[in-house]
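In practice, a research group might receive sequence data for several interacting partners and want a quick structural hypothesis before committing to experiments. The following worked case mirrors that situation: the sequences arrive first, and a predicted assembly follows.
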Amino acid sequence: MKVGVVTFPGSNCDADSAHAVEDVLREDVVPLWHEADALPSLDLVILPGGFTYGDYWRTGAMAKFSPILKPIREFAKEGGLVLGICNGFQILVEAGLLPGAFLKNVDQHFVCDWVSLRVENPATPFTRLYRPGEVIRMPVAHGEGRYYLDEAGLKTLELNQQVVFRYVDNVNGSVNSIAGICNFGKNVLGLMPHPERCCEALLGGIDGLRLFQSAKESPAAHA
Amino acid sequence: MWRVKATVKLKDGVLDVQGRAIESVMKQMGYTDVQDLRIGKHVEFLLGSEPSVAKLKEIGDGLLANPVIETIEFSVQGEK
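A structural hypothesis for the assembly, expressed as tokens:
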């Protein structure tokens, strides 16, 4: 499996994402700079966490204009797997690859903690190794994690089973306690928690590992 | 040159936590009757030619404002 990990100016979880893939999953990582206007042959593209462009003006707003978003859009259109973690999720949402928008956490705190998530949809390439309704633990670290979508959009999202992870206790005020969603085609996943930070017991938990393993075993990853 | 000014605001009904934080400080200052404090963003720039509505829409929708959660108002003025 070949996994591209994108670095934007201000990405800071690219190394952790690469580590999870290379050292834990034992698959190939291809580092990608945000100015690349083409992608090599890949099975999965990861947009990692961080503070791209300093979260200036609006989180993820600047990164969506990076040249690499063009080939990523095409890759996603053709069914390629795209995983947006934290700021990566925010970029996917700004870029329109996933619906919605992000706002500052409802209680004005930057939340840095382990949270419990419910796996709402195990029928995606990223969640096949989880049980439906399974409660897992992942760390979050964000100040602008409040996911927002209007009522009509939410209805569609829920109806299409695009809600993949939900907070058991809503840490940031996200509508419908949404922690992670996928696109209609289910090949693009965005989540605010950090699966790459919980792939090794040493770091406090391994519930994130199955997300990467699911992607590895997915037929979409070997198209 | 044309000076473009824009104000970006959160849509009504979207909770503004920054506004809420500042409102509570204002109350502490003694303005106990303050209500509905909401924060917007202001941006100004110069353009070489008068921007069309279509151009402003392009600049507004997606860069300066996120239409899912924000509204944007432009004012355009000719300048030497």
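Before designing any experiment, note the following. Chain B has a mean pLDDT of 95. Chain B touches chain A through 14 residues (CB under 8 Å).
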